[in-house]
Design brief:
Elements (H helix, E strand, L loop, with lengths): L1 H16 L4 H29 L4 H5 L2 H9 L2
Helix pairs in contact: 2-4
Length: 72
């Protein structure tokens, strides 16, 4: 009987080891969100550098700024 209880205890504890808390998942999601925002910002900066000085072409970069604003 003790062996059976020990086996169940070990199985239950091994199940809990792989679980993440809500705070950990939230922190990971927040980090992913911020990383995505930085990628879009980098694309915007690259677009501005590429079209430096041409006002019409700079307008084509505005969608990146709108995407960043929408993510706030």
């Amino acid at each position: 009987m003790r062996k059976l209880i020990s086996i169940f205890f070990v199985l239950a504890m091994s199940g809990f080891v792989g679980c993440t808390t809500g705070a950990e998942r939230a922190a990971e999601a927040d980090a992913d969100f911020k990383e995505e925002r930085l990628k879009i910002l980098k694309k915007y900066q690259d677009c501005v550098e590429e079209h430096h000085g041409d006002a019409k072409k700079l307008q084509s970069c505005e969608h990146y700024l709108k995407a960043i604003d929408a993510m706030k």
